[in-house]
From TrEMBL:
Residues 1-57 form the 4Fe-4S Mo/W bis-MGD-type domain. It comes from the Bacteria. GO terms for molecular function: 4 iron, 4 sulfur cluster binding; metal ion binding; molybdopterin cofactor binding; oxidoreductase activity. Keywords: 4Fe-4S, Iron, Iron-sulfur, Metal-binding. Belongs to the prokaryotic molybdopterin-containing oxidoreductase family. InterPro entries: Asp_de-COase-like_dom_sf, MoPterin_dinucl-bd_dom, Mopterin_OxRdtase, Mopterin_OxRdtase_4Fe-4S_dom, MopterinOxRdtase_cofactor_BS, Prok_Mopterin_Oxidored. Coiled coil: none annotated. The keyword Metal-binding applies. PANTHER family: OXIDOREDUCTASE YYAE-RELATED, TRIMETHYLAMINE-N-OXIDE REDUCTASE. This is Molybdopterin oxidoreductase. Pfam families: Molybdop_Fe4S4, Molybdopterin, Molydop_binding.
């Protein structure tokens, strides 16, 4: 038995772990008590890495579809065939005919992701897709529109916090959305000892139960609460120096939020006026605050507006780039303070969208995931390189997506465990899982500190698995692109990692020796202030957002809301036992004739799913909560490819009107 120090890459919290190994068998994963952030914490998903590595459906050799059946083959034959087919498509139809999806499977592989970026750039295709338009475009949109750069990534200053407001996020289960929270219970317990903690969520979540205050608004009305707070601070309590010298368009913001009086907000959000007033009083008393949102916000029709008003609230309280508010992560590998951030156009960083959906546009160089099926059906996309994504459970409108994928001339998927998406693929490329490769922290700007980690490979790769960077570089070579040197074979992952980290804040050899490196963040950061000088001040009222706020309508009587589960992440870890429980309030269940633990059907205008009812008084009336990623009861069965935010292309997985009824029975529509 030996123990290897590593770090978990299930999510961006990247907790420190110790892996017990016997020979090449992974016996156990446990928390590393010496890790400076996670401090011995692990979640059930991290502890399940041995089950992932030894999964009975793991893919060990390249697969190629012959006569409709996936059959084992060699890397040479598989990559030769992909290269020949892709080159033929490029030559005949042009770069737009090849779509590339940057999935979360490759998204935690530092070397693999960087070579994937190089391959995409070499292909020159505008048809780039990622989880950005599945769960998070609002955040980078507001950074771009209000902050003038999508690179600005605000994070709560937990060390000096006075008040932290969580909206539509449950970090005790999710570990944060785009802001990682290792050891969430310990972090929140310490936080509430020195700061006030509030939660806005239609359910009394695990996080809400630890908070000092909780508002449970009607789903889809978070924006009203934020507009009320902004309106009242503009009247009394805003930081006048910031407002007068570091912002533009304050008058336009005041006009936009003017309708959101206490009485109007109480009616729209259906929360007590006394509780709204208490939150407002605490915001004013705190001075500086931090606001953090999650998928409960970013997947909804009001995502952009709620995120915008969250930023506005922090700007008005002087909380941006200041102790007790939020700080801006400069990155560990890429040091943002070493160059001037380009100032984005006032109207946003948008470009042309796909030909089949002229009403859509690209954002930050990406097309909406929702348009993929239409682009395939129109004959515009002939091949898709799926780099670690489970498209069948992630993309909206499964009923149109699956037939479209079956029509592709080529559908090559990087994956480690067989699933419904690999079954549709023409080629399956088994790359090393996270225990089989050396690695670095990739998304270092999501870390709670300016920090990075390194791990060696814990075990040898099973079967004929290869490093993802090697696979993509070899494919690139067959297409005529020099992406990485593969002459020395695929074993030396650290050589690739050394190139990635050549300009990092600490040399790679220090990371290898210590496993962890950290530098002190500059706070307030001068590079952010310099960027703000060039910008001319925070843009408080972008026209796109003002118009969206005015156009928002009242939600339906019963709507879908998303949630995460402790033993389930997107489509991963389905074998740990979390089921597709559909949470609803007992009163809503009684109206619909649904009993606890009974099978029920959730239906929208687009589709339906069947799950298990769980009557839960902690969720407010009017909300139906369905978890992500369950194949048989997946929220993408309820969503249409046309139900998207036309600014960002974000698919609406939340706030959708639904009806519920006992399975195989006559529907009862509430309201």
């Amino acid at each position: 038995m030996r123990t290897v120090r590593s770090f978990c890459r299930v999510c961006t919290s990247t907790c420190g772990i110790l892996v017990d190994v016997s020979g090449q068998e992974v016996i156990r994963v446990r928390g590393n008590r010496d890790h400076p952030l996670s401090q011995g914490y692990t979640c059930s998903k991290g502890r399940a890495l041995p089950q992932m590595h030894h999964h009975p459906e793991r893919i060990e050799r390249p697969l190629m579809k012959v006569d409709g059946t996936l059959r084992p083959t060699t890397w040479e034959a598989c990559l030769d065939d992909i290269g020949t087919r892709v080159r033929g498509i490029l030559d005949r139809y042009g770069p737009e005919a090849v779509g590339v999806f940057f999935g979360s499977g490759l998204g935690m592989d530092a070397a693999g992701y960087r070579v994937a970026q190089a391959l995409h750039a070499a292909l020159g295709t505008p048809a780039k897709f990622s989880p950005l338009t599945i769960d998070g475009t609002a955040k980078v949109l507001i950074s771009d529109l209000v902050g003038g750069s999508a690179a600005l990534n605000p994070r709560p200053d937990y060390d000096n916090a006075h008040l932290v407001l969580y909206i539509g996020t449950n970090p005790l289960v999710s570990h944060g959305h785009t802001v990682a929270m290792p050891n969430p219970v310990g972090t929140l317990r310490e936080l509430r000892e020195r700061a006030r903690v509030w939660v806005v969520d239609p359910r009394r979540t695990e996080t809400a139960r630890m908070a000092h205050g909780h508002l449970a608004p009607r789903p889809g009305t978070d924006h009203a609460i934020m507009a009320f707070l902004v309106r009242e601070l503009l009247r009394v309590g805003a930081d006048r120096d910031v407002l007068d010298h570091r912002t533009v368009d304050a008058d336009m913001l005041a006009t936009a939020v003017a309708p959101f009086t206490l009485e109007h907000t109480e009616a729209v959000a259906d929360v007590p006026a006394a509780e709204l007033s208490r939150l407002l009083a605490e915001v004013r008393a705190a001075g500086r605050i931090a606001v953090e949102t999650g998928t409960g916000v970013t997947m909804s029709a009001g995502a952009n507006v709620t995120q915008w008003l969250s930023w506005a609230l922090m700007i008005l309280t002087g909380s941006m780039n200041r102790p007790g508010g939020v700080w801006f992560h400069p990155g560990f590998t890429h040091q943002l303070e070493t160059f001037e951030l380009p100032v984005s156009p006032a109207g946003g960083s948008f470009g042309p969208g796909p030909r089949s959906r002229p009403e859509t546009q690209s954002f930050l160089g990406e097309w909406p995931c929702a348009v993929l099926a239409d682009e395939i059906e129109a004959g515009n996309i002939r091949a898709v390189l799926n780099l670690g994504g489970h498209l069948v459970t992630a993309f909206p409108d499964t009923t149109t997506l699956v037939p479209a994928l079956e029509k592709l001339d080529l559908f090559a998927t990087i994956e480690i465990i067989a699933n419904e998406t690999t079954a549709l693929s023409t080629h399956v490329l088994p790359t090393k899982d996270q225990l089989e490769r050396a690695d670095l922290t990739l998304w270092d700007h999501l870390s709670p500190r300016v920090a990075a980690q390194h791990t060696q490979a814990v075990v040898a790769p099973v079967g004929d698995r290869r490093s993802a960077w090697w696979v993509l570089a070899e494919l690139g070579r067959r297409l005529g692109y020099d992406l990485a040197d593969t002459s020395g074979g695929q074993a030396d992952d650290d050589a690739r990692l050394a190139m990635i980290s050549a300009r990092a804040r600490r040399p790679l050899d220090e990371l290898i020796a210590e496993g962890w490196a950290q530098t002190q963040e500059e706070f307030p950061a001068a590079w952010v202030e310099r960027h703000l000088d060039r910008l001319g001040g925070w843009r408080l009222a972008p026209r796109l957002l003002v118009d969206q706020l005015a156009a928002l309508t009242s939600p339906a009587p019963l709507v879908l809301v998303p949630r995460r589960q402790k033993r389930h992440l997107n489509s991963q870890f389905t074998y740990l036992g979390d089921t597709a429980e559909v949470l609803l309030h007992p009163d809503d269940a009684a109206t619909a004739g649904v009993a606890d633990a009974q099978q029920l059907t959730v239906r929208t205008a687009h589709g339906e799913l069947t799950g298990i009812a769980k009557l839960d008084p902690s969720i407010r009336r009017g909300a139906v909560s369905v978890p992500h990623g369950h194949q048989g009861a997946n929220v993408n069965r309820l969503t249409g490819k046309n139900d998207i935010d036309l600014i960002t292309g974000m698919a609406h997985y939340s706030g959708i009107p639904v009806s519920v009824h006992p399975a195989a029975d006559t529907p009862v529509i509430l309201g």
